[in-house]
Amino acid sequence: MFANYLIGLREGLEAALVVSILVAYLVKSGRSDRLPPVWGGVAVAVALSLGFGAFLEFTSAEMTFEQQELFGGTLSIVAVVLVTWMVFWMRKTARHLKAELHGKLDAALAMGTGALVLTAFLAVGREGLETALFVWTAVRATEDGTDPLIGVALGIATAVVFAYFFYKGAVRLNLARFFTWTGGALIVVAAGVLAYGVHDLQEAEFLPGLNDRAFDVSETIEPASWYGTLLKGVFNFQPNPSVAQCIVWTAYLVPVMAIFLFHKPKGGAAAAAPPSSSSTSSTSSAAPAAGGQANSALPQ
Questions:
Q1: By C-alpha distance, which of 82, 76, 91, 83 is closest to 248?
Q2: Which residues contact 201 (CB under 8 A, 6 or more apart)?
Q3: How many other CB atoms are there within 10 angstroms of residue 177's CB atom?
Q4: Following DSSP, what letter does each residue of 8-31 receive, concatenated?
Q5: Which is nearest to 156 in space by CA: 135, 177, 176?
Q6: How far apart, in whole angstroms, are the C-alpha atoms of residue 4 and residue 77?
Q7: SS3 letters for 222-272?
Q8: Which of 144, 150, 233, 152 is nearest to 196 (CA)?
Q9: Which of 12, 20, 127, 169 is least enclosed by beta carbons within 10 angstroms?
Q10: From the CB of residue 171, how many other CB atoms can be counted at a distance below 10 Å?
Q11: Closest Cα to residue 149, out of 159, 161, 136?
Q12: Is residue 285 packed enough to be buried (19+ CB in 10 Å), middle (13-18) or exposed (0-12)?
């Protein structure tokens, strides 16, 4: 539940932050009449994410055991790729997310209602699809399929509450620091998902070595115990993993975590620089209050 709470919180906060920035920008600039297209785009994105999760569940139900394992293992690897990309992308853009979104929203306002719907849809849809995929793989990896769903729901609910306070200006959070800490935790979670995906591919007989155990601590760490359940839920820990699972887990976690923690993103200062004169003049003429009140109400 905790691992999926983290997924829901992180992905939900990204989407909720984007929506709160878009809404605040429109309200502060006196364009509240353009809010319905934004909410329409959000609703379509949420519906698409739920539909994608249902599609994965019903599609896998019609497969044989080997096909299910192959399908699940492949999607686990895809989910890890997407989450890894998301972690690094958000670490790079967290500092200048607001300025970037304001520029995109100005362009969408100039293009019309359809562009506003698309902007909100893309902002929420990407996180929604990633969440649906990651949670689906987590549900398959647990005996109690409700725990991941409860965890992600609580995470999304927490994210919505945070976003509301961001909008109201009652909470100020260092986004770069927040996404660094949660990003590191998600890399550990993703390593476990990747190892479990390899296990699925081995059970599907797509990869060899299912019975080549790296170690077996089942008698020491009982899977049914509270600590065994905790390790399984957070890290996808197995007391008797195969050699291939351990190799993949280590080969992913060590270099990815090292790059994430010690490699400074390029272009951070340039991206955080003030917008061009044309963009600035357009924004200031259309919404003189947005640069002051909206910026002060939202996190830097």
A1: 76
A2: 69, 70, 73, 74, 207
A3: 10
A4: HHHHHHHHHHHHHHHHHHHHHTT-
A5: 135
A6: 17
A7: CCCCHHHHHHHHHHCCCCCCEHHHHHHHHHHHHHHHHHHHHCCCCCHHHHC
A8: 233
A9: 169
A10: 14
A11: 136
A12: exposed
Angle between helices 2-28 and 35-61 (to 10 degrees): 160
Number of H helices, E strands in the chain: 12, 0
Q: Which tokens belong to 110?
A: 């100039």
Q: What is the pLDDT along the chain (300 residues), one digit of tens a residue?
A: 666 777 777 777 777 777 777 777 677 667 777 788 888 888 888 898 888 888 887 877 677 888 878 888 888 888 788 778 877 876 776 666 666 666 666 676 666 666 667 767 876 777 787 778 777 777 766 656 577 778 888 888 888 888 788 777 656 666 667 777 777 877 887 888 888 889 989 998 899 988 898 888 888 887 766 677 667 666 677 888 999 999 999 999 999 999 998 877 665 444 444 444 444 444 444 444 333 433 434 443
